[in-house]
Specification:
151 residues; alpha+beta; Nuclear Transport Factor 2, Chain: A
Length: 151
């Protein structure tokens, strides 16, 4: 066994055309287990007459505190890809999960006194509401784009 494989606990591979995906469970020096997912892609850098194959590798490390979030995101993604749910349903599920997980526990606060509400003419309210909805949609998309960049 080579030195680098001493931390390897389990490995499984999936062959997919010119790619191989490795799912490894490893153990860190402090004893914590983590998952390493590696994509290995065979690439011909030579010529037709003189082929020279190399393997391009991309790694993803997944630590125990992120397992549940990763699996939930992967399951949502698979559900959309397999047409089990729509992309909008997946986004709504993600936002609900994010709000539930990220909501900080706050100390009890006295209820605020309601300020008098001034009504605006309906003509001004509709454009403001539409602009607010578009800003909210852009903000959600921005968050989702960040999540997609992680994976």
């Amino acid at each position: 066994m080579i030195e680098a494989d001493k931390d390897l606990i389990f490995s499984e591979s999936v062959k997919a055309g010119k790619r191989i995906y490795y799912f490894d469970v490893k153990q860190s020096r402090n004893g914590d287990k983590y998952i390493a997912i590696t994509e290995s892609k065979k690439i011909n850098e030579g010529t037709f007459e003189n082929p020279r194959f190399v393997f391009e590798k991309h790694k993803l490390f997944l630590y125990k505190e992120d397992y549940e979030k990763f699996v939930n995101a992967l399951m949502r993604t698979l559900d959309v890809a397999q047409d089990k749910i729509t992309a909008d349903e997946a986004r709504a599920s993600l936002m609900a999960e994010f709000e539930t997980v990220e909501a900080p526990a706050a100390a009890p606060v006295a209820a605020p006194v309601a300020a008098p509400v001034q009504e605006e003419p309906a003509a001004e309210t509709a454009p403001a509401a539409a602009a607010s909805a578009e800003e909210e949609k852009a903000e959600k998309k921005s968050f989702l784009d960040k999540v997609k960049d992680i994976f």
